[in-house]
Design brief:
Layout (H helix, E strand, L loop, with lengths): L3 H13 L4 H12 L4 H7 L6 H41 L16 H15 L3 E2 L5 E3 H4 L25 E3 L4 H10 L4 E10 L10 E11 L4 H15 L6 E8 L2 E10 L16 E10 L1 H6 L8 E8 H9 L12 H4 L3
């Protein structure tokens, strides 16, 4: 039969000197993980004579419960000790007089101002619009059909059944401007947008800057020049730029814009997934249907549009690898800017 007391004593001996969660998890796996001591004991129950199985099962359950109890207790001890050490490191005596603290401009604000300044120098005006937007402006007038995946609930935050939502891009600002003004139009629309994303490189709320130019003589070459000049000015170097064929419902033709990786200088690294290139924005010639939706004669006028994520450019410019750092208000992070 099982010597339960010996197994438990051995476990107590093993965890007595452990002070890290990672090592404790290895011990836990040794006992109740796949192929662990207790797991193997449970799997052997079919080999035990029927008249002894009840007592065997009782002892196995006793060991399992004791292992879980001891591991949980030790985990809590380690957690409290780690918390104590953290507080000890970060402790500050708030009664001690300090030098006046100087405020810091948030890195996202720095980046947004920088982007806007560059486009203003090219003659673009800044336009803003509501963050709670009508589905009509956010999707319909941008040539995004009702069955398009972007309109699904998992991507869009809908406010109510009357067609209101949290805008998923700042493109509705372009629609509003084209409805209110006559060409020529040269504008950028900075602002917050909302999508159902949440991971180290995405956030449910983030910032975009989208640009629009509508005139009688603008073309793809003009757009290419504007984007290349912007990227070179923003990154303060002559970064390689390439345009890849893509698809957006509101532009035709459409393209994704890549730059040579600013981390590895195009040699290939984890950030660029060994390709040497980083995607930074999308662009294209405004679809004629979008112009017509806004009352602009697509036979006479044409335009180009582009859009970029402010957080992505900020992360690349400052070498930040987690988007959540922007929203945690940790002074140790913010003081670096």
């Amino acid at each position: 039969m099982i010597d339960a007391e010996s197994i438990i004593r051995e476990l107590e001996r093993e965890i007595a000197s452990v002070s890290e969660q990672e090592k404790l998890l290895k011990i836990k796996s040794k006992y109740i993980g796949k192929g662990g001591i207790v797991t193997n004991l449970i799997s052997r129950i079919k080999e035990i004579p029927p008249d002894q199985r009840k007592e065997y099962g009782r002892k196995v359950n006793l060991i399992k419960e004791k292992v879980e109890e001891l591991i949980t207790k030790k985990q809590e001890e380690i957690r409290r000790e780690e918390e104590r050490r953290r507080l000890e490191r970060e402790w500050e005596d708030i009664t001690v007089p300090v030098e006046p603290l100087v405020g810091h401009i948030h890195p996202l604000t720095r980046t947004l101002d920088r982007i806007i300044d560059i486009f203003r120098s090219m003659g673009f005006r800044v336009k803003e619009g509501p963050e709670i937007e009508l589905e009509k402006y956010n999707f319909d007038m941008l040539n995004i059909p009702p069955d398009h995946p972007a309109r699904d609930m998992q991507d869009t935050f809908y406010v109510n059944k009357e067609g209101y939502l949290l805008r998923t891009h700042t493109s509705p600002v372009q629609i509003r401007v084209m409805l209110e003004e006559k060409p020529p139009i040269y504008m950028v629309a900075p602002g917050k947008v909302y999508r159902r994303d949440d991971d180290p490189t995405h956030s449910p709320m983030f910032h975009q800057v989208e640009g629009l130019a509508v005139s009688e003589d603008v073309n793809f070459g003009n757009m290419k020049f504007v984007i290349e000049e912007f990227l070179k000015t923003f990154f303060e170097e002559n970064v390689p730029v390439r345009f890849r064929v893509s698809y957006f419902p509101f532009t035709e033709p459409s393209a994704e814009v890549d730059i040579g990786c600013v981390i590895c200088e195009g040699k290939g690294c984890r950030v660029c997934k060994e390709t040497g290139w980083l995607e930074v924005m999308g662009c294209g010639m405004v679809h004629p249907a979008v112009l017509e939706n806004c009352g602009i004669d697509s036979q006479r006028y044409q335009g180009f549009a582009f859009g970029m994520g402010v957080e992505r450019l900020c992360m690349l410019y400052y070498g930040i690898d987690n988007i959540k750092l922007f929203y945690e208000n940790d002074l140790r992070f913010l003081r670096q800017f």
